[in-house]
Amino acid sequence: MNAPAYFNAPAAPVTPDVETLIIGTGFAGLCMAIQLQKAGRHSFMLLEKAEDVGGTWRENTYPGCACDVPSHLYSFSFEPNPDWSRMYSPQPEIQRYIRHCTEKYGLRPHIRFNTEMKRCEFDGASALWHVHTGTGEIITARYLVSGMGPLHKPVYPKIAGLETFKGKSFHSAHWDHEYDFTGKRVAVIGTGASAIQFVPQVAGKVEELHLFQRTPPWVLPKADRDMKPWEQKLFKALPFLQRLFRSQIYLRMESRALGFTVNPKLMNKIAEMGRKYIASQIDDPALREKLTPDYMPGCKRLLISNDYYAALNRANVTLETDGIKEVRASSIITNDGREIEVDAIIYGTGFEAADPINPGQFIGPDGKDLHAHWEKNGAEAYYGISVSGYPNLFFLSGPNTGLGHNSIIFMIEAQVNYILQCLDEVEKRGADMLDVRQNVQDAFNEKLQKEIKTTVWSSGCTSWYQREDGKNTTLWPSFTMRYWHETRRLHPNDYAFSKVSEKIALAAD
Ligand code: NAP
């Protein structure tokens, strides 16, 4: 096997600042750090652009924010929390859990807060990543792990005149808690996972709420309830019971992959449930009609709520479905020519999940910008983790590892386990780096894209799961068990291993 082209000069061994540099301190980054530590790898650093840990759970603080995956599953398998207050605990509690993990595993000294990753460049001569930060530092690392997640770049709608609006406006991910809604006329744009959580909270406070819906979501009742004090005590005393509880939630959620990925026709049953739910909740037949989706449930994220439809029955709430023509200084003009005076606009318009990294953030050997490549072809990686041509770089929650049916934390734990094996294998071979083979990555993605065509996500709707060209770069098209099974053991032959100083590739074949 020939050495990769970027081997240009034998180098004396260079000691990096840290062995592993992790970007982000959400669930993903922290999970990586905890497992590195457990594996006895203490040379790591986490870069965090903000002043606290938590990732999306730090950023999203809008009223009503909660996870739509039950808390006993939406938490680390190795750090059960018997004290969850509800089946679906609210954001502040999830954030407290994340802080608890940070303290318990002694991660704070490893975290550089208020330090944003700006640019990561791979230096072929030393086989090190050079990470440029917003504070002007350059940190070198052997391994680079991105725990940035796909939901951190807010989307603002492209509407004529938006910048001329003189009232208050903010995105759901940047909620202004100082803003007093009392007596205000408020427009909400978007009816996705975030909006259906905050609309019921805001509706009772405002004078008027105009909810601009482009596409109705499918919404089902949420099986939420308080956890009983005796359940919390039992879980504390007998942790295996909590594990059982978690497992049954996991299996119940996992079974939904049958409808999402194997036989989307099963989703017709969900559509029936959704229609019945609308009928039971919404009084006005015309409003029912507007709220009934015309695509298969699951094609866009399936939502759960017990108070969304009730909020839409309120006399001060209007569902606007005519679309927005333009925004003026103090009003919104609809496509049918109405002018709606508003004091505030809240954007519940989501995130750029299909375009998760910025230009210049990951520069490989030979100066290749990963963003440019992903922008052109759609984000692609091997099991969402490794990208050919970018040695020793790993993604958590990377391309095609998102889920519509189960907990993303299950996927993150599988990815962390895989990455640790990569690190071990590099050392075992006395190499400096590994790089997934292009043909392996291509074959994986070809198969994945073929499979995803038969899932519910390709059944004919537009969603943030897909790019404009229709390519789905965000979701794992199968059971999470399969992902776990396929990533639980590293297949070293999938990678080329290289050692800089000897200028040779130590490939397995
Ligand atoms: P989202 O699901 O992408 O929803 C965005 C909404 O904005 C959609 O209704 C979309 O309409 C609408 N929209 C976008 N551009 C628009 C425009 N120009 N004019 C009118 N409407 C426009 O965003 P999100 O609600 O912030 O949620 C994003 C993701 O975050 C979720 O899918 C989920 O993965 C995650 N999340 C999770 C939870 C949880 O409980 N786990 C909670 C919140 C968020 P169209 O449908 O027509 O595009």
Structural account:
- The protein has helices spanning 27-38, 56-59, 91-104, 195-203, 229-237, 239-255, 257-262, 267-281, 285-291, 308-312, 370-377, 408-428, 438-452, 480-487; strands spanning 18-23, 44-47, 111-112, 117-123, 128-133, 138-146, 168-171, 185-189, 208-212, 219-220, 303-304, 317-320, 324-327, 331-334, 339-341, 344-347, 362-363, 393-395, 433-436, 495-499, 504-505.
- With 509 residues, the protein is α/β, with parallel strands linked by helices.
- It folds into two domains: 5-53 and 107-151 and 355-492 and 499-508, FAD/NAD(P)-binding domain (3-Layer(bba) Sandwich); 162-217 and 256-347, FAD/NAD(P)-binding domain (3-Layer(bba) Sandwich).
- Helix 5 packs across helix 6.
- The longest helix is centred in the last third of the chain and has 21 residues, at 408-428.
- It is globular.
- It starts with 17 loop residues before the first strand and ends with a strand.
- The model is unreliable at 5-10 and 503-509 (pLDDT under 50).
- The structure holds NADP nicotinamide-adenine-dinucleotide phosphate (NAP).
- The site of NADP nicotinamide-adenine-dinucleotide phosphate (NAP) has 23 residues, from loops.
- The total of beta strands comes to 21
Beta content comes to 15-25%
- Assembly classification: single chain
CATH class designation of the largest domain:
Alpha Beta
Annotation field: number of helices: 14
What is CATH's topology name of the largest domain? FAD/NAD(P)-binding domain
End-to-end gap: 8 Å
Q: Which superfamily, in CATH terms, is the homologous superfamily of the largest domain?
A: FAD/NAD(P)-binding domain
